[in-house]
Amino acid sequence: MDSSRPVGSALDLAPPVPREEAESGARVRRQVAGLDGLRGLAALYVVLFHCWLYTFPGYPDSSAPFWLDGLMFGRLAVVFFLVLSGFSLAISPARHGWRTAGVGEFLRRRAWRILPPYWAALALSLAVSWFVVPASHFGPPTGATVLVYGLVAQDLFTAPTPNGAFWSIGVEAELYLLFPLLLFLRRRRGAVVLAVCVTLPVVAGGLMAAQANPVEGDNWLAPHLAPVFAAGVIGAGIVTASDRVRRLPWGWLAALAALPVAALGVLRGSVWTVNHYFWIDLAIAPAMTMLLAAVATGRPAVLVRLLTARPVHRLGGFSYSLYLIHLPIVMAVIRRVAPHFVARGLPTFCFTLAVALPVSVLGAWLFAKVFETPFKRNRSWKSLLAPGSFRGEPTV
Fold first, then answer.
1. Which residues in 128-154 are b (16+ Cβ under 10 Å) and which e?
2. What is the distance between the alpha carbons of residues 385 and 387, in angstroms, rounded to a whole number?
3. Do 137 and 129 form a contact (C-beta atoms < 8 A)?
4. What is the pLDDT of residue 32?
5. Which residue among 25, 139, 210, 292 has the highest number of C-beta atoms inside a 10 angstrom radius?
6. Are the beta carbons of 345 and 392 closer than 8 angstroms?
């Protein structure tokens, strides 16, 4: 698709943003302090969740000590990733009248950014699943696994997974296809219409399920999670909002919005919360969006300082790699290494934290150096293969 001219579809009735303006907007987006730190902390929580999950059987009614129950909500960290993704992607369009450089150019850039590290992590995960420890209760990966996961179609088709964390990559890939339509609705009809159009069908479908609580499987999660992604898109409007709106206490509003959800979870229990993620995801998304608005406006200052501290910021820089490769490491430690040294249960959990957590972080940092960072610094194969591109030197 030629992105140098408007595409003849309803999504591109408005003229595309010139390339130089789009690149300028991308630089502005990267300068929003704290977003990388949030990514890093969310990815780290997912690692802790998987250390907990694969150590103690019986999820969600886990055999873990009750004081570790705070680690059982890895799904909400992924929901936060989706809200943050919609928010980050929409910042540049929000600064340019909710327009992009074109659908084709947007999808090309997303593929360039997401797929190389994903495919590298897929190869690593397949090797671990075949030769060390299967990642699926269906057994080792098959030819269908290679095809389905290679095409990032795991949200549409079922195959033995090589890496349990990959489910969200398939969901996000589908949401990228929806993103231009979300921008179109935001530009032409406003934030309220966008929220209603995306959320109302999901709520209606949920209410029609047995006992008004849909039972989710391993596939077709993107339609349910589209509203949380759209919430992030809507929240990105904070970057062009009036001073009066930007001065609102977004941090406190986020806390107030999260309070009823947290209170319900405490009253009904963690098992009930996990079994009702369909509704919890939708209910918590506004609070997550307000938190992003707070960080984007620089408040609360103490939180922004934490998120921009060098260790947290650097962790955020390779958080995608950490998310992609940590689970094979965690499973290998729990199922192949720990049994030789410690007893099951809490000793295995502590052993896994001591071994798998630092190995995952260090491994992700090295993995990102090769498979992620070069694709963030360069926008094409010509630029990537130019001398000095891997050392971070300027490329033409």
1. bbeeebbbbeeeebeeebeebbeebeb
2. 6
3. no
4. 84
5. 292
6. no
